[in-house]
Design a protein that fits this description.
Length: 240
């Protein structure tokens, strides 16, 4: 294959680069910003896609962010690729802040007491995932399924995260839309102007080369003057 890696990455390296890219998160962010600006679509469609990706990134739908962002962008008639790129907002660095802010706001809105740290939130997510898997496998063995812990997890963590995360996602998504729209519009206009200038220079060069290759096609300065002068001299001689 043409694009196949020479050295196949191990699972450990793949996971490590997912948590921390080789060039760092700053370089990855600049790359994503560059790719978003260069998408071949209308600026408002790209901005809608960014809104969808940012909004979904603030929800506890872990594992479904890509699908959710693409579906929301499709409903809004936004750019689906832009929505997938915008889910980059949710990454290992920002997820602790997103989770803590979403759960705290959700608990406040729902009237639940207490504050949870990011470590407690992700620990509960891990335990809930393991409990859900045990309940599924209990259908095929003699174990008894227990759903009470998952019910408590839903009320204590998941629902507050969903409510608070949606609000934070709407706020940040709307801000991302209005920030990205003029930036993308200015970039595309600047790029179009560069292409027009480059095309104009190319046309001028081609015309110059054509004139050098075929001198007869170029207008002869002074030819009319010489012809006019000769005609006047002939007329004067005839009168004389």
């Amino acid at each position: 294959m043409v694009f196949k890696r020479r050295n196949k990455r191990s699972w450990g390296r793949t996971i490590a680069e997912a948590l921390w890219p080789r060039g760092g998160w700053t370089r990855a962010a600049h790359y994503m910003k560059h790719r978003l600006r260069r998408l071949p679509d209308a600026p408002h469609r790209i901005a809608r896609g960014i809104f969808a990706g940012v909004l979904i990134s603030f929800t506890p739908l872990f594992g479904l962010h890509f699908a959710g962002a693409a579906f929301l962008a499709w409903i809004m008639r936004g750019n689906i690729l832009a929505s997938l790129m915008a889910t980059f907002v949710g990454n290992p660095i920002t997820f602790p802040f997103i989770a803590a802010g979403g759960v705290e706001l959700g608990n406040w809105l729902l009237g639940h007491p207490g504050v949870m740290s990011p470590l407690e939130i992700f620990s509960d997510f891990g335990q809930a995932g393991a409990e859900f898997w045990r309940n599924i496998t209990s259908l095929f063995n003699d174990e008894v399924a227990h759903w009470d812990r998952l019910h408590r997890f839903f009320l204590r963590v998941y629902l507050p995260f969903l409510v608070g995360g949606m609000i934070w996602g709407l706020v940040c998504g709307i801000a991302s839309y209005y920030i990205s729209l003029p930036v993308i519009l200015a970039y595309q206009n600047r790029r179009k102007k560069k292409l027009r200038d480059r095309l104009a220079k190319r046309v001028a060069v081609l015309k110059g080369e054509q004139a050098k290759a075929d001198p007869g096609m170029a207008p002869k300065s002074g030819s009319k003057t010489e012809t006019g002068g000769t005609s006047r001299d002939d007329a004067a001689e005839n009168k004389g």
